[in-house]
Amino acid sequence: MRATVPHARHWQTPMSPLEAPIPLRLARDLRAALFALGPAPSDRVRHKSGLDPDAAAADFARHHAGIPARPRAGDEPAVLYDQPGGPTLVMGLYGSDTRLRQWLPGVRDTALPAAARALVPLPPEPVFESDHRDTEPRLSQLPIPKVSPRDAGRYISMGFIAAGSPRAGLALSAHRMLVLDDRHLGVSMLSSRHLRRMAEAAWAEGRDLPVSVNIGVPPAVAVAGATSTAHLPVEFDKLSLAGALAGGAVTLHNNAGTVCLPQSEVILHGVLTARQCAETRGARPPGVTMPEFLGYDGQAGAPLQIIRIDRITQRPGALFHSCLGPGREQSALLNLGGALTQALKLRNDPRAKDMTDLHYSASGGGMLLLLVGLRAGAAPDKARLARDLVATMPFTKTVVFLDSDIDLSVEADVLWAMTTRCNLSGDTHALEGFAPLRMDPSQQDDWAVPGRGAAGRCWIDATTPAAMSVPRSFAKEAAQVAS
Fold this sequence. Notes:
The protein has about 475 residues and is α+β, with helices and mostly antiparallel strands. The chain has two domains: about 10-330, Pnp Oxidase, Chain A, CATH 2.30.110.10; about 330-465, UbiD C-terminal domain-like (3-Layer(aba) Sandwich), CATH 3.40.1670.10. The protein contains twelve helices and 21 strands. It has a six-stranded antiparallel beta barrel with strand order 6-7-8-15-12-9. Helix 4 (about 110-120) crosses helix 8 (about 330-345). The chain is globular, with a radius of gyration of 22 Å.
């Protein structure tokens, strides 16, 4: 008997496009993961009507967004905003580290270093049919929000670009994409991105690169897409990693030479061209783009590459997944993708066995603040390990080493350890030789004052010295109860 997720009517809200039972493929299907939340309490799922995409983004920011977007503790709920005549807008879906990991069998019940060692690559399964249907190829028909009045325009914020093929090399990565008009997007790509290298090779041959922009991807694909291609073990690519996280192969469809992910809710089919445009459009503060993961307005940088959209396809009753930028949702996704990258890079490194867990805190937007749990008795070279961790994920600004009795997901527990198990004046150590992160205001030249020191990276030792024994008062009692 096939397990199914609950009917939407169990929420006692009108959800007619999504009322059909859906097989329980949580990690490989976004709507199955959403519906698995079931007749959930309002702190996990909410449903709202009467708000257009811009108003929905403002509502989410005002009432639901967490750190670092707003000073609000706790997880974000998944909020579904009805849109007349179009896909339902979804925000906050990944707004909980726990919720996200529960959807991924490969990392659900095991801390990351050990989970990464156990992952076995599962290549994608090619399919020749999908339930997608062509819709009017106009981007204005999709509920793409302008998340702040200062934005350069409307951005697709949860679009995963796929190009190439598993045999010839496949690129899969998340990008913010500025809507230029009904048929064109501007995309920002770092020079280190695998997608850019593929595009430059195509342009050198005088052709555009066929791509698909996949929106509402399966949770396992979203996490795999947030990892670094450069540090994946040789036996993995991002889709075989997604299969490993999901406990089953994700599907892949080749549509007239364009590879796409048919379990996505909405797919934009087109080509990545050699044409460029500036990320400065409309009446707004000069150089502002959209809110970034750290909670500050983004700054326009290099010119955007232009994607031409030729077709748009959707699943029946499609969901359109969007992200505010800063907040728990993006932090949770970046945290798991970044920590998984670190664990996979250390997969065959003896030092991984010294670690109990890895966690990028939402306080650093899921990228800047890395918490590392160390098992009792472990004595790695912390300075060298911290340098290697920063080199693997260069957005890492601060590495904090903690004892195994500290819950890395509970920030108050981390602060307790930093307060009582270290003296910051002596236990904070600079890491030289790394370029400043310009997205971080505290690393800009204007921030520096005499006596504060130069911007840079550091590591903090918040572990108990090996020669001391200072157990928590209730630790022994809790262990006795558990036994």
